[in-house]
């Protein structure tokens, strides 16, 4: 009986999320011209960032044993993964200003649905489609240009992208959980989101030892991007990690997400309304 109720609750929760997501999509497409311009601007802006990387390779040929095709794979993986989390996690980005400071989070607590689900349904943002398409294009070009692509390992692409999206979504949830203490969101957390995207576009060997350790075992950016890329490219790791590690390392993104969900629940349990 209890299991049946749990299944019914989960089904109704998913149905609610689909309704909220659809309403968000309809609202954004009400003005298709504006939506198209925003998406195009997002595409062009992120593409210009890749041209900066391209110019480095035009000048130096290769960097640390990595050619342009290999780095394009890194770039594509991290940008596609981040665009997915950007699409899903808007409610957590604005959580401090729109929910905690105004006291609107109290209303979410009164609803018989998980707060994480309600915030995921805050807005299914479509603008990051531009980053997604641009990142997917660069990723495909990188796999085509890289000289030693292991095509049997390309199945890692969706696995790495979902792991990366889970990791970035975990960062956004952790940022929102921090607002239970700070009320307003802290811009310093952008070091882990946009800064993480920038760091993920380059080989891990370019960074100092302490930063490599943090990007592997703290914020598992290397686990969802660098090591899967090595496995796809059949590129030996200069740091000595076996290539097989890249086939399981995207799971680190889901572990990080689970940890941030636990932090979120602790924050909700200690929440005290700030009023309006």
Automatic annotation (TrEMBL):
<dbReference type="InterPro" id="IPR010390">
    <property type="entry name" value="ABC-2_transporter-like"/>
</dbReference>
<keyword id="KW-0472">Membrane</keyword>
<feature type="transmembrane region" description="Helical">
    <location>
        <begin position="35"/>
        <end position="57"/>
    </location>
</feature>
<protein>
    <submittedName>
        <fullName>ABC-2 family transporter protein</fullName>
    </submittedName>
</protein>
<feature type="transmembrane region" description="Helical">
    <location>
        <begin position="240"/>
        <end position="264"/>
    </location>
</feature>
<keyword id="KW-0812">Transmembrane</keyword>
<feature type="transmembrane region" description="Helical">
    <location>
        <begin position="63"/>
        <end position="82"/>
    </location>
</feature>
<dbReference type="Pfam" id="PF06182">
    <property type="entry name" value="ABC2_membrane_6"/>
</dbReference>
<keyword id="KW-1133">Transmembrane helix</keyword>
<feature type="transmembrane region" description="Helical">
    <location>
        <begin position="153"/>
        <end position="173"/>
    </location>
</feature>
<feature type="transmembrane region" description="Helical">
    <location>
        <begin position="214"/>
        <end position="234"/>
    </location>
</feature>
């Amino acid at each position: 009986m209890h299991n049946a109720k749990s299944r019914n609750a989960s089904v109704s929760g998913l149905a609610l999320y689909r309704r909220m997501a659809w309403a968000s999509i309809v609202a954004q497409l009400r003005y298709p011209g504006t939506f198209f311009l925003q998406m195009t601007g997002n595409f062009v802006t992120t593409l210009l960032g890749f041209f900066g990387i391209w110019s480095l390779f035009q000048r130096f040929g290769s960097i640390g044993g990595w050619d342009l095709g290999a780095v394009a794979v890194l770039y594509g993986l991290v940008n596609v993964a981040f665009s997915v989390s950007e699409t899903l996690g808007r409610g957590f980005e604005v959580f401090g200003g729109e929910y905690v400071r105004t006291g609107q989070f109290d209303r979410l607590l009164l609803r018989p649905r998980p707060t994480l689900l309600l915030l995921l349904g805050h807005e299914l943002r479509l603008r990051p489609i531009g980053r997604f398409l641009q990142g997917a294009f660069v990723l495909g070009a990188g796999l085509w240009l890289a000289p030693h692509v292991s095509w049997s390992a390309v199945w890692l692409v969706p696995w790495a992208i979902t792991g990366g999206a889970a990791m970035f979504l975990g960062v956004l949830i952790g940022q929102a959980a921090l607002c239970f203490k700070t009320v307003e969101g802290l811009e310093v957390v952008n070091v882990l989101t946009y800064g993480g995207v920038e760091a993920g576009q380059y080989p891990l060997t370019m960074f100092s030892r302490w930063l490599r350790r943090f990007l592997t075992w703290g914020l598992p950016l290397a686990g969802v991007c660098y090591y899967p890329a090595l496995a796809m490219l059949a590129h030996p790791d200069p740091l000595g990690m076996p290539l097989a590690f890249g086939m399981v390392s995207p799971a680190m993104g889901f572990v990080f997400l689970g940890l941030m969900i636990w932090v979120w629940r602790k924050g909700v349990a200690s929440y005290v309304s700030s009023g309006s």
